[in-house]
Each structure stands twice: as structure tokens, then as C-alpha cells.
Specification:
This protein is of the alpha/beta class and 304 residues long. Helix content is 34%, strand content 29%. The protein is built from ten helices and 14 strands. The structure holds adenosine-5'-triphosphate and magnesium ion (MG).
Length: 304
């Protein structure tokens, strides 16, 4: 089966005249199977937008090979572009109305009939906004219009750069539901970037953590949770001076909330309470949980 995306040893160096070069990607290798939602997750400046732009043939990497739907992305760029699309940011030009914008972009793909435009308008629930100027829409509806645009050419692979950035939680949820529904209905591959762990967990079949231009880990969210040795966490409300806390387990402090990462929470809890008591710290409450994707993310983002 042809993979939706393959990328081998991809490097990207941004060269500027006045400042030092920025190495945005350092040898990225990635395989995206056909028919899945694949998430690129990472902190600011990790290289997510750079990578997704390269995969969508918008940027040419400094080095490396990218294949999309089995084709060399930079030797067969035209052919690749016919079968993919990207939605990045919430922009449309010239203060046009939603319908006009979509019709214009459809024409760029040689689609002259109205049906395709009407279909995406209804698919992305834009009926009541079709005659509004794009600039006058709420951020959520702008995002919907941008997504609609990315589906005009009936793409097999769609790249979405931060599809829920700057949206309120309700609208973000709506957009996520829309992405899931459309992925199923159209039976396509989606590659998206996100900062939001929950979003990655909800939407993505596989997730790659990207940090400093490298893939730090890749897998399903369950696999990633197993990636760290510690599989459970204990959240303790503590009282006392925690500024010089020393501990045999990895931990995170946030005010008087102490999160300790352990292999087996039930087994570890008594010794943790004793260790804290020895340092004059009392435990007011303790809660045991499985680790979250966020814990893995923080560990990977902080680790070297
Ligand atoms: N056009 C450019 N010229 C020079 N440097 C750039 C350019 N675009 C990005 N960079 C740099 O490359 C690195 C990766 O940026 P990129 O935008 O790909 O990261 P990101 O993971 O998408 O970040 P964010 O989460 O903030 O969107 C950063 O250090 C950034 O400053
Ligand atoms: Mg970005």
C-alpha cells in the first residue's frame, strides 16, 4: 500500500542576510500511513509549520526526500498538488465574500461548476455566512471557510496547520468534530499540527512529538504514554517548605500541588508520604492517576 507521506532525512535551514541561520529541521524521518489522522505535536518553534509546509510542497527543504502518495514531492510537485491541499492560518484575500472566495479558489483548480463550492459550503456549515465578507466573520467561521477551501479539489491528503488555534473551547470542539466527520465521510488522510494534547489524543491515530526540529517520539497516544518509564502519577496537595524538596522520583511542583511520577502509585505512595514527612512537608490529599499525554509531552519537551 502506498503511504500518504514519507519523509527521509529532511533538513531545513532558514538563511537570512542579517542574522544567524536558523536550523528549523534536523533530519526528520516520518511515515504516514494512508487513511489516518496524523498529529505533529510540539512546543513553539519546534518546526511544525516548517515541516507541514514542506510536506504540502509549499517549502522546499534544504536537504532530504519527501514522497507524497508515492510521488517525489519536488520532482512531481504539480501532480502532488492536484491530490493534496493545506489549510494554514485564517486568511483570504481582498475582503471577498465567502462564496466568492471559495468560487475563486475552485476556479484556480479548474473547477468551473458551482456544485463543488455548494458542497463544501454545506459540509462546513457555512450556509448562513456565504454572503458575508470573509473579513467580517468570527475567527471560528473564518477557520471553517479556510478548511472548506482546503477541500475544494477533493484532496486525498489534507494538511492542517493548527486548525483550532485561537478558538474558544466550544468552537474548537466543533471544528474537531467537523474534522473527524469529514475524514470519515471522505475517507482521506489528514496530517495536522497542534499544541493541544487533548486534541491530539482525541483526533489522531498516531502522533509525532517534534522538538528542536527532530522527531523525539512517534506512536499512538497509548504507545507514547508507555514511552516514559513511569506509567502512573500521584498528585499531592502538600503543606510546608517545598523549595528544597529532594526526591527519588521525577516530580513537578506547581504551588502546593506536587505531581510525582511512578511505576506503581499504590506501592509508592507510603514511601512518598514518609519522604515528605522527613523533610517537614505534610500531605493534605493524594490522588492517583495514569499519566497523560501531557506528561509525556512535558518530559520530552524539557528533556535534552
Ligand atoms: N521564514 C522564516 N525565516 C527564518 N526563520 C524561520 C522562518 N520560519 C520559521 N523560522 C524559524 O524556524 C524555527 C521553526 O519554526 P516553525 O514556525 O516551523 O515552528 P512551529 O513549531 O510551527 O512553531 P509554533 O508552534 O510557534 O507555530 C523557529 O526557530 C522559527 O523562528
Ligand atoms: Mg507553527
Amino acid at each position: 500500500m502506498v503511504k500518504a507521506v514519507e519523509c527521509r532525512d529532511v533538513w531545513m535551514v532558514y538563511r537570512t542576510f542579517m542574522e544567524k541561520d536558523t536550523v528549523a529541521l534536523r533530519g526528520v524521518n516520518l511515515d504516514v500511513e494512508d487513511g489516518i489522522i496524523f498529529g505533529l505535536l510540539g512546543p513553539n518553534g519546534a518546526g511544525k509549520t516548517t515541516l507541514i509546509s514542506i510536506l504540502a510542497t509549499i517549502l522546499i527543504p534544504t536537504r532530504g526526500e519527501v514522497r507524497v502518495l508515492g510521488m517525489d514531492a519536488f520532482k512531481n510537485t504539480r501532480k502532488v498538488r492536484e491530490r493534496i491541499n493545506i489549510s494554514s492560518g485564517v486568511r483570504m484575500p481582498w475582503g471577498m465574500k465567502v462564496y466568492e472566495c471559495l468560487r475563486f479558489y475552485a476556479m484556480c483548480y479548474g473547477i468551473t461548476g458551482r456544485k463543488v463550492v455548494e458542497d463544501v459550503i454545506s459540509e462546513f456549515e457555512l450556509e448562513e455566512h456565504r454572503n458575508k465578507r470573509f473579513d467580517d466573520l468570527s475567527t471560528g467561521n473564518k477557520q471553517k471557510a479556510n478548511l472548506a477551501r482546503a477541500f475544494l479539489n477533493n484532496p486525498e491528503v489534507v494538511f492542517l496547520d493548527e486548525p483550532t488555534a485561537n478558538l474558544d473551547p466550544d468552537m474548537a470542539k466543533k471544528i474537531r468534530e467537523m474534522i473527524l466527520r469529514i475524514k470519515e465521510e471522505r475517507d482521506i488522510t489528514i496530517v495536522l499540527t497542534t499544541h493541544n494534547m487533548k486534541e491530539a489524543e482525541l483526533l489522531c491515530d498516531r502522533i509525532a512529538f517534534i522538538k528542536d526540529g527532530k522527531i523525539a517520539a512517534e506512536g499512538t497516544s497509548e504507545e507514547l504514554k508507555r514511552y516514559t518509564k513511569m506509567s502512573e502519577r500521584i498528585i499531592l496537595k502538600v503543606r510546608g517548605d517545598v523549595s528544597r524538596l529532594s526526591f527519588p522520583y521525577p516530580f513537578r511542583l506547581d504551588g502546593n500541588s506536587l505531581t510525582v511520577f511512578v511505576e506503581d502509585a499504590e506501592k509508592a505512595l507510603p514511601s512518598i508520604v514518609i519522604k515528605l514527612a522527613e523533610q517537614g512537608i505534610n500531605v493534605e490529599s493524594a490522588k492517583m492517576e495514569e499519566i497523560t499525554l501531557e506528561d509525556v509531552f512535558i518530559e520530552l519537551a524539557e528533556g535534552s
